[in-house]
From TrEMBL:
UniProt-recorded Gene Ontology molecular function terms: kinase activity
Protein's recorded name: Response regulator
GO biological process per UniProt: phosphorelay signal transduction system
Record organism: Microvenator marinus
Domain HD-GYP: 302-497
PANTHER family the record matches: CYCLIC DI-GMP PHOSPHODIESTERASE TM_0186, CYCLIC DI-GMP PHOSPHODIESTERASE TM_0186-RELATED
SUPFAM superfamilies for the chain: CheY-like (SSF52172), GAF domain-like (SSF55781), HD-domain/PDEase-like (SSF109604)
Keywords, in A-Z order: Kinase, Phosphoprotein, Transcription, Transcription regulation, Transferase
Record region (Disordered): 510-529
Keyword Transcription regulation in record: yes
Modified residues (4-aspartylphosphate): D64
Domain of life: Bacteria
Xref: SMART domains: GAF (SM00065), HDc (SM00471), REC (SM00448)
Source lineage: Bacteria, Deltaproteobacteria, Bradymonadales, Microvenatoraceae, Microvenator
Amino acid sequence: MRREVFAMTDTPVARLLVVDDEESIREVLVDFLTMEGYHVSAVSNGKDAISSLQKNDFDAVLLDLKMPGMDGLELLGHIKRIAPRAFSIMMTGFGTVQTAIDAMKNGAFDYILKPFKVQDVIRLVERGLAQQSLEAENIQLREALKLYTVSEEMTATLMPERIYDLLIDTAREEMGADALALWTNQPDGFRCERRWMRSDLDEVHVNIVNGVDVGALEEALDLDISGIFHNGEARKFIPKAGQNLVSIMGVPLRAKNQTIGVFVGFAFEENRRFTEGRRKMLAVLCGRASAAIENAKLYQNLQTTFKETIQAFANLLEDKDPYTRGHSERVSKYARMIAEGLDLPDSEVELIADTALLHDIGKLGIRYEDLNKAEPLTEGEYEMFKSHTTRGRWILEPIKFLHDLIPGVYTHHERWDGKGYPRGLAGLEIPLHGRILAIADTYDAMTSHRAYRRALPHDVAIREIQAFAGRQFDPSLVEVFVREISQDRSFKKAKAARWDALKNTAKHKRALEAPRDSGTMSALAAPED
């Protein structure tokens, strides 16, 4: 038998479920609690209570300990599973210390003996709701703090992949889902970027997550503002889900009025059924992620433009001087080698490598004939050549997004002993980028053919650089360069040796397998004279 009474009010009030096999107690509690302004439902046994809990959201359950079929302690376990947010008050006329302990161990909020005063029950309900409200406020505060922290992290990173990870990790901690997945909208359809599932789920659940029709779900999200689909409604998007799927929650990621992705949560158990509160939090989280992903894409486009601009300048420079063609790329390679050997952040490694590509950009203002004379330069020509560092700064200064390249371009001819140019800086006064480029530039200049001399062997060039450590070059960077280039050359030699061995093995195998005339002895098998 089931009874339900609603208080006459427009404001949201607590929903209570009374479970007792005694009709008189049910009626008394329903009448008095309704007069207190609560929405009250009542059932006579544990089976009906489970059914009500599965169909409705309750804030509290008042249940009898001794009932036919399923007792109160057993029902407590079902309440914890189906309605984990609800608190329970155990009622009994057979109270002992042990039954009270058992009730509290099984998750009861409190315990009251029959016969009871209705006012005592009302006070227990009020106290439980007050604690529940406080816990909800704490959860909301924690969620708000989490959202703020994650939003800051998303805004700080400029990599979409990191934003995907933050979105999945935060939702996993906060949503109480069994599985999560993020799809992004690509020209050829939706692509799954990230997926997470509880470790104890089986292949059936994996197939459910993989089998969702994201396109159909995205269309439904445009029509259904809730984004939460239960039971049969949920299974429309995953035809093979069967009864294993309880609900799904979908939230679109949108930027510039376009859907750039869809985030989906999956619930396979009743106690994980999604609520509107969960959806609202996920919607806020996805909104932050959408903005961060869009910013990351804009940044990547700017980076692409940045790289293309640098390469265009480098191509223009090397087209002017065929003797130094490839010089900028090689200097960039050696500079990257030193930067990585110093364990610099990836962003700084890239900046140094980009600076190396344009370290000689100032030579665009110098006549080609003066750059590659076979004879020694006159004093005037040498001064003109030295001006390429200052000219390089002058060329880059109007281009704001290339400003970070200026220190290296301007100072790559400074010397550790202060006898370099253009400013005569010494030691650590020289920016790190300039000190790195000085070594990389000099090594490539010595090991490359020029109009006025032939290339020097690697070993000779290394000895020259080591000889000028502490005079022309930063001695600590010389050590790093020698170490890194030695490792690089050793790796390449070992790789080349392995490749030669493979080629020789293949050649030998082909020779053995080659067809030959029966009357002609194989060259491999022929005896020596």
